[in-house]
């Protein structure tokens, strides 16, 4: 029909297919284009909705006639097709920006170099348990756009990456959380930390005095960035090294959270479900969100004490001879493995491999160079992993069972290292599914 706006979606993963669903529902002429291979699951979803798509190519005639383009966070601004769109003055936005136009739900947006997923899941758990009508989306779970199309939530907890923020312009977070800024993805930011930091600070763009900004007062880069950008929102810092007047701080192994006078939440760190220094920060951030929303102290305490991180997602299995074993079997694509490596603060022995879905391992290269001592391949055909990383790590070993992988990784690791199962691949060559792979790995670790 005449006058129907054309929306082109680049990338047919969770966010792209979700955006396609919402765009179609809103009456747009929708076309999806993916330069990589579209998985069968997402192909089926697009076919079911009768949405036109192409795989393994970008046909310029079908893309450069768009009124607006929604791009996957994984596509850099330097990609040829993006440059052409920008040159033509065609608006390029993220799925999050697009979806927010069609919902009145309030948003709690969580970003940071490390801890985003855990903090998002914990915040969602606290809100849901307190009886709020809340959804979870962004970098985690089901796409935000797909949920806006099919659900009616009052609140959303959104895990937001810097790549998403780069394509968000009019979007406003009602509650913004910045956990930390550490050197990361600098290849996307001209190798300048201040560019990456500026990207993270977009989490507070468009905020007003009615909104809330929560940040870590112990994080050097966040503080540096805040010297140049003054938040309009009410700010609540959290710290484990010093007392703060409003926000959260640690004293004698007790967390204190104070948003207004005479209503303080205190909780011993030994009662937290999530242990470890980085998780004190994550728990504080989630706790401040809960207090800002005026949830009851006993409800918040209970949720912070009984939270379970998703099984097979950065799940701590055991510590043996000073070596941590982490099961991230749910990481069936390169993106997820990238997040897992990003969150590691020690040297890593990485167990990866399986059914390779046309993976582009380039995005892992910098993290592998900086953090990975050895790669243990777990799969029938590991050639592409060898080809991708042979220049970046000294040791790449092939294994064909979870037992063998766990044993070899244990021998390659030394005290203080982390053995991380984060495959970046599907599991069907050696296992029933990713759960089976994770369970076999956990059993193998416990046998060590």
TrEMBL record:
Q: In which pathway does it act?
A: Cell wall biogenesis; peptidoglycan biosynthesis
**UniProt domain Mur ligase central: residue ranges:** 110-289
Compartments annotated for it: namely: Cytoplasm
Record-annotated Mur ligase C-terminal domain positions: 312-425
E.C. number(s) listed in UniProt = 6.3.2.9
The residues that hold ATP are 112-118
List UniProt keywords, sorted A-Z. ATP-binding, Cell cycle, Cell division, Cell shape, Cell wall biogenesis/degradation, Cytoplasm, Ligase, Nucleotide-binding, Peptidoglycan synthesis
A molecular function (GO) term: UDP-N-acetylmuramoylalanine-D-glutamate ligase activity
Write down the Pfam families for this protein, in alphabetical order. Answer: Mur_ligase_C, Mur_ligase_M, MurD-like_N
Reactions catalysed: UDP-N-acetyl-alpha-D-muramoyl-L-alanine + D-glutamate + ATP = UDP-N-acetyl-alpha-D-muramoyl-L-alanyl-D-glutamate + ADP + phosphate + H(+)
Q: Which family does it belong to?
A: Belongs to the MurCDEF family.
What is the purpose of this protein?
Cell wall formation. Catalyzes the addition of glutamate to the nucleotide precursor UDP-N-acetylmuramoyl-L-alanine (UMA).
Protein name from the UniProt record: UDP-N-acetylmuramoylalanine--D-glutamate ligase
Which gene is annotated as encoding this protein in its UniProt record?
Answer: murD
